[in-house]
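Please fill in the sequence for the structure shown.

STRUCTURE ENCODING:
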């Protein structure tokens, strides 16, 4: 089992020592599931890139700006957000660490018929 507090401290230390001001550690890789702690020092960024099929970002330390459609959004420690499906980037407003949870492939969705009674009940609620 990995300890997120320890991973956060180590990645922040590595980012501060890096010429690029960032560091990442993939600590969980299970089939299509990936979890990575990413640390960025204030002002450092991850350039815009394509999104995986499904992903979320949880801020473990600091404040970041998730850039992308609609100008993006600012997140602080303790907050979590879905990663937009469009191209996006990440900027550190202050020394920060985030937990990226990504699913690299999703099975094709199967559409099942919804009975008329269930549709009517859902429409009433």
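FILLED IN BY: designer on duty
SEQUENCE:
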């Amino acid at each position: 089992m990995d300890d997120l507090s320890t991973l956060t401290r180590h990645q922040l230390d590595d980012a501060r020592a890096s010429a690029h001001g960032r560091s990442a550690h993939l600590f969980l890789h299970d089939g299509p599931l990936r979890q990575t702690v990413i640390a960025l020092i204030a002002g450092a960024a991850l350039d815009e890139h394509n999104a995986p099929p499904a992903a979320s970002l949880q801020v473990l330390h600091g404040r970041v700006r998730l850039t992308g459609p609609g100008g993006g959004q600012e997140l602080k420690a303790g907050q979590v957000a879905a990663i937009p499906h469009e191209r996006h980037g990440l900027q550190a407003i202050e020394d920060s660490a985030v937990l990226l949870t990504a699913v690299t492939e999703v099975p094709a969705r199967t559409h099942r018929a919804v009975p008329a009674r269930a549709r009517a009940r859902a429409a009433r609620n």
